[in-house]
Amino acid sequence: MRRDGQASRRDLLAGAAAATFLGGVAAAEDAPVNHVVLLGDSVFDNGAYVGGGPDVVAQLRQRLPRGWQASLAARDGGRMEDMPQQLRAMPAGASHLVISVGGNDALAHAGIFEEAAGSVGDALLQVAAVRQDFEAAYRAMLDQAQALGLPVAVCTIYDTAYREPRRTLAVTALAVLNDAITRQAFRRGLPLVDLRLVCDEAADFANPIEPSVQGGGKIARAITTMLAGHDFGRGRAAVYL
């Protein structure tokens, strides 16, 4: 019952924000076109996993009001090292950037679960070393994105749909990396879409690590709510779900 209540409230808030967003933009016939670009990995570029259904960017386009466009620059398999290429390949006229990246960088370190450790402390030090490298790369990536001078929003890495006990291991490890993402967002005053809370049902995943049509729809809704409600000019961080 609690989950249903939370979902109903979330739908109500998202609907109200979208309605306000739609009314405000549609009322101005000569309003300039806003153009949001999605960058990162298959969290956004999930077309190969939805069985012919709408991917994230298609569902986002359906939700955005008149006067807005959405483009996909994210690529399945994308990692932080690929972001400079994605930024260079963005369509002209981009006005807002939404970035979801880091999951594939985390997967590259999955072998840490098989490494021997003499104690829990030793294991935590190994995880801490991965986190340090991850945050350095994420910080550099955000520096490059923000250098364009456009409003930027970022996403956490969502919890996976692996079977237990692998899911618990992954969620625990991802919490350390998500801490790096949230710290960077908060320090820079960026809006944060928390995909851990957006994609919170098994049906949100087409496989253990890719969003389904349902999950993609929830992601598109959260992004629309963020674009509708966030004042990028204030430079204050906020969390959206």
Topology:
Elements: H1 2-26, E1 34-40, H2 56-63, E2 68-72, H3 83-88, E3 96-100, H4 103-107, H5 120-146, E4 152-155, H6 166-188, E5 191-193, H7 195-198, E6 205-207, E7 210-211, H8 213-229, E8 238-240
Parallel strand pairs: 1-2, 1-3, 3-4, 4-5, 5-8
Antiparallel strand pairs: 6-7
Helix pairs in contact: 1-8, 2-8, 5-6
Description:
The protein has 241 residues and is α/β, with parallel strands linked by helices. It has one domain: Rossmann fold (3-Layer(aba) Sandwich). The chain has helices at 2-26, 56-63, 83-88, 103-107, 120-146, 166-188, 195-198, 213-229; strands at residues 34-40, 68-72, 96-100, 152-155, 191-193, 205-207, 210-211, 238-240. The strands form 2 sheets. The chain has a 6-stranded parallel beta sheet, with helices on both faces. Strand 4, helix 6 (166-188) and strand 5 form a beta-alpha-beta unit. The longest helix has 27 residues, at 120-146. 39% of the residues are buried.
